[in-house]
Amino acid sequence: MKRADVIELFTRLRELNPHPTTELVYTTPFELLVAVVLSAQATDVGVNKATKKLYPVANTPQAILDLGEDGLKRYISSIGLFNAKAKNVIALCRLLIEHHAGEVPHNREALEALPGVGRKTANVVLNTAFGEPTMAVDTHIFRVSNRTGLAPGKDVRAVEDKLVKVIPDEFKMDAHHWLILHGRYVCKARKPDCPQCAIRDLCHYKDKTTA
Ligand code: SF4
Asked: Is 206 labeled as catalytic in the residue annotation?
């Protein structure tokens, strides 16, 4: 995609939503980290429903350790893969206490060393909790980047690297949220809503829908 079109694309997405953010509800980096770990293959709405009950009771690594794995499971059992996620969250809390004084590290390597935390989760935390211009490529961003021609790539890492390269600095902080929301609500997986799409004329997708 031409640079002028990239600028136009993000200008339009910014006009529609000047201050985008994650749909996960959180108040601290730790709450965000746990919510993102819980959100793998689950919806933000489902995670919010669980954390709304969990966080008033336990929202620090020590408090969650005190709940124990079974205690934690009682709060998150409505979320897919909750057994494995409970195990990861407990191990993650232990590591945060042992190596990071109970704080979420502001550092990619340390984040990725935590159980259940991969590159995508680390990118979300670095971007949303710490304000770094990272690009966490999820299924929505992957699809939108390929369909539009903004950053085509055969895997998420290729798309991430391309996005970091092509997105102008002024949009980098918020680009991740704009693209996720665009993919979730407009450029949907099964049937993109092309007639209603604000970036239709800039998009290179060959099979645009007409109704
Ligand atoms: S025009 Fe269609 S395919 Fe292109 S970004 Fe918009 S919704 Fe997606």
From this structure: no
pLDDT tens for 90-136 read 999 999 999 999 999 999 999 999 999 999 999 999 999 999 989 98
CA distance linking residue 111 with residue 118, whole number of Å = 8
Is domain 29-128 classified as CATH 1.10.340.30? yes
Strand blocks (E) in 45-179? none
Helices 156-166 & 139-148 angle (0-180, nearest 10): 60
Cα–Cα separations (whole angstroms), residue 69 to 63, 73, 77, 87, 112: 12, 6, 11, 6, 22
Round to whole Å and give the CA distance between 145 and 155.
11
Ligand 1 site, CB within 6 A: 147-148, 186-187, 192-194, 197, 199-200, 203, 205, 208
Question: What atom of ligand 1 comes closest to residue 200's alpha carbon?
Answer: 1
What angle separates helix 29-38 from helix 82-100, to the nearest 10 degrees? 150
CATH of 3-20+134-202, one of 1.10.1670.10, 3.40.50.970, 3.30.70.270, 3.20.20.150: 1.10.1670.10
User: How far apart, in whole angstroms, are the C-alpha atoms of residue 5 and residue 3?
Assistant: 5
Kindly tell me if the per-residue pLDDT of 55 is higher than 90.
yes
Give 14's pLDDT tier (boundaries 50, 70, 90): very high
